Description:
Blueprint: H1 3-22, H2 42-51, H3 53-80, H4 88-113, H5 117-120, H6 126-142, H7 144-161, H8 166-182, H9 202-219
Helix pairs in contact: 1-3, 1-9, 2-6, 3-4, 4-6, 4-7, 7-8, 8-9
Amino acid sequence: MSETQQIRIGAWAGIANLLLSLAVLLTTRDSWKFWPVRGDSDAEYAAWFDQHSAGAFAQTFSTNIGALLGIWFAFSLTRALRLPRDSLLSFIIRTSATVIVAGMLVVNAMFSVTSTPQFIDDPQSWPLLRAFTEACLHTFYGLLSVFAFFLLAAAAAIHQGRELPAWTGWTALAAGLVTLTGSAVSLVRSGWLAPLSLPAVTPFFLFWLWVAAVSVVMLRLPSRDLPERSGEPGEDEP
């Protein structure tokens, strides 16, 4: 596979990452409450999972696939930026994408467990359901620091190499700082900024939007494949 093909396939993976991440918003029937929110009662937690158990499983599937595609995007991004394989920035970008996959698998495993009837149907299990959800929240928002490292490393690489437009670097820097700050959301106990409320997941969607935007830029990069030389080997050029 040529370098141009690798970059473009990775770019399509980045766009698919956004679409799969947005798909989670279609798996519940409530207009603005896509997940149970910290501050809800134990009964409200159980009621949400009872109503949306199928949607919760669909969310875990789509976000797991999206995270795996993120590794492909990260590899293609380092190629688009012409980063040496052994460079620090290349290592941070690729390792961050890998850690995100591992973290999302753990988060989604816990999220899936809370959707099982054993937790939902027995009121005595509701505190345990809440404990699982809290562990899920802390892991989920703890991953924001990894998202931020990815974005900040990408910003530095874009500024250093100038292979992509400057705005992709500045937006990566801004999104990285917002995402890093977003880790503190896990400390909020209740209210409109409580974990898993729609405003509180904005940093995640900011990351996925940046990935999709840069993917479009990568699709528009000129081909890097060298044209085949005509004539016999060793033949002098005119």
